[in-house]
Fold:
Amino acid sequence: MDAATLAAYDKAVPRYTSYPTAAQFDTRVGPAEHAAWLGELGGAFATVYFHVPFCTQLCWYCACNTMAMNRAEPLDAYARAMLLELDRLAGLAPELIVGAIQWGGGTPSQLGTRRLVDVARHLAARFERRSGAEVSMEIDPRHCTAALVDAMTEIGVTRASLGVQDFDPGVQHAINRLQSAETTADVLDRLRAAGIRRINIDLVYGLPRQTLATLSRTLDAALALEPDRFAVFGYAHVPWMKPRQRLIDQAELPGAELRAEMAALVSERVSGAGYRRIGLDHFARPDDSLARADASGRLRRTFQGYVADESPWVVGIGASAISSLLSGFTQNIAAADRYGAALETGALATARGVALSDSDRLRGEIINRLMCLQAVDLAEVCRRHHVEPVSFLAGIDDLPRLIEDGLVNRQGDLLHITDRGRPLVRSVCAAFDSHFTPGLQRHARAI
Structure:
């Protein structure tokens, strides 16, 4: 990608895992609104997302809501709080059907095998589950014991996402995460032997000390593991939001042009190995459910990334967990102790959220289609939202420039992201974002 395009568009923009984005959440949405919105679910299918905000030690690059925790008492208290939240959910949406289950963090296994099983059993006792529902869990291969694999099998895990980020020792030292390819391969073999055969691998480009050569070697090692999916994210350096990132030497981070070359290298190598490119940053084997959803136009983007789930609704359980509901988004209290204390009072632990307006629903659908499918029929979407397409498009001030600069191709009301524009799809989506204010230190760069 040329320097002029990078200078114009490689700016800080949202990741668009929701619309409105979390930057628009505020305290006008609280426990009362959250409770009412959960009650609207009725007998709908929804994904249940469990957030465990603990790790054995912190990786400096990580922007997740997590903390180092190894003591039993806080882990016991957190597990009790999750059980209480499931009870609250059962009281508000007793007919909810669990369409999928996702365990994320942090490191979910840090909760401990007994507590994981207790929470999973409580969910199963409270709610009906769709036949064949996928159960996924994020795994840190450095801390994946035989006991954990047994527990994963007991609670029905069908897919494991292995955090790798990078295999180069120099890069690993720079982000405080030492993990060999051999350790990762051993864990993968153990999971497959236990019947957990759907495997994702997470990688990151744009890390400190990372070069095209080191990234290429990491891709070689990761491809040799033959996972079903890859998620390859651009490192988001946001030290004003995540103080641990201040331990990373900013002078060791790749510049804009090198990051763009890294993104291109990832796409070329992984796609060349037979994986279908999914949206902005995922890749899947052609027979994987994510690739099938992409091919059929059913792909969705949530706070957990790209998903093939049939339902758009997500119920978040745990500190800082986000729920995507019919009337809006909600987020729980981030601090684990305060989250638990709120639930002990008999209420929900809601900290903030945002209610969806008619405009949000229209713009959110357009943004989701661009992020997932790189195309949208603007007239068709506008008509379903009872909006006149011409007047709506007249308000998208940046669209002519995006077309002129070759990031977008427009044929009538059909909008396509070009190959040139695909790495900058978040910048294209920002043109449709009525809440976005350029220049604020809230987001990571587009590439």
